[in-house]
Specification:
Blueprint (H helix, E strand, L loop, with lengths): L5 E6 L14 H11 L5 E9 L6 H11 L8 H6 L1 E10 L22 E5 L2 E2 L2 E3 L6 E3 L17 E5 L29 E5 L9 H10 L4 H13 L8 E5 L22 E6 L1
Parallel strand pairs: 2-3, 2-4, 4-8, 8-9
Antiparallel strand pairs: 1-11, 5-6, 6-7, 9-10, 10-11
Helix pairs in contact: 2-4, 4-5
Length: 271
């Protein structure tokens, strides 16, 4: 079977407006390009974090083949949309990059960029920073994307096993690791797997390419995973958890940041 069934579940806090309008800026970007004769870029930053050092080479392979799509020079799609994404960080992962730990913390790393991509070993709600290293428990991490406190992260990609459980794994509490006091304090979504996964393949390269061509983040990930599955390999079952209404966010057009301490979440998952 080349395609896997996809389901969606929600945990909604009542009495709040869950939908956020998408930004409509393409016409403005195109107009500026036409008037100036050159690209007028709205810069966004990408970070790549690798399980290591001295970890499996496949994890560095994954992150490299994703981040290579994001360079300071603009391609056709960035010129057309007026938004430029470039890699600002490329490091061996450390726990402090994701936590409130001295000497530097998440505000200097994962929360200084707009999209962060990690590849390594993980499990529900977390991952390890390297061989024999620290477990990064996202349930105990500070809130990400809180603009009021100077934080910036919108999108977190976890190419690791089982970090995003679905109602299949946790029927009654799949959301409790994320809201209301978890990392979703302005963060739009976390994308990854609900099951064990296989890496060192073409998924990260295909995913990065799809993002640069304007496909929505969730569906670019699911399609990249399905494309790998069509080759006969088992890449795992993909999943994504997000604030309701931001399902079609792409790197060029995405909705307003969700409010802090919200209790509403949606999960998409393959099965």
């Amino acid at each position: 079977m080349l395609q896997k069934r996809i389901s969606c579940s929600e945990k909604i806090r009542k009495g709040r407006n869950m939908l956020k309008p998408l930004l409509a800026v393409v016409a403005v970007g195109l107009l500026l390009c036409l008037v100036s004769g050159q690209a007028v870029a709205d810069y966004r930053e990408v970070a790549g974090y690798v399980y290591g050092p001295n970890g499996e080479s496949r994890f560095a392979f994954n992150v490299y083949h994703f981040k290579k799509h994001f360079t300071p020079s603009q391609n056709f799609w960035e010129l057309m949309y007026g938004r430029n994404w470039a890699t600002a960080q490329y490091y061996w992962a450390e726990e402090r990059f994701f936590k409130n730990q001295p000497p530097d913390n998440h505000k200097f790393f994962v929360d200084r960029v707009d999209l962060a991509y990690y590849s390594g070993h993980g499990n529900q709600y977390g991952f390890r920073d390297g061989p024999g290293g620290n477990w990064v428990d996202l349930r105990a991490a500070p809130g990400y994307g809180d603009l009021f406190n100077g934080d910036d992260l919108e999108f977190l990609i976890l190419q690791t096993c089982a970090a995003i459980p679905s109602p299949i794994e946790r029927p009654t509490d799949w959301w409790t690791g994320w809201v209301p006091n978890g990392i979703f304090q302005g963060l739009h979504m976390v994308v990854g797997y609900r099951t064990g996964s296989y890496s060192g393949n073409g998924i990260s390269n295909d995913f990065g390419r799809r993002l640069k061509h304007g496909q929505s983040i969730i569906w670019a990930w699911f399609d990249a995973v399905n494309s790998e599955r069509s080759g006969g390999f088992y890449p795992g079952y993909a999943s994504a958890v997000l604030y309701p209404g931001l399902d079609n966010d792409s790197i060029y057009f995405y909705g307003q940041d969700p409010p802090a301490h919200h209790g509403s979440l949606r999960v998409w998952y393959q099965h």
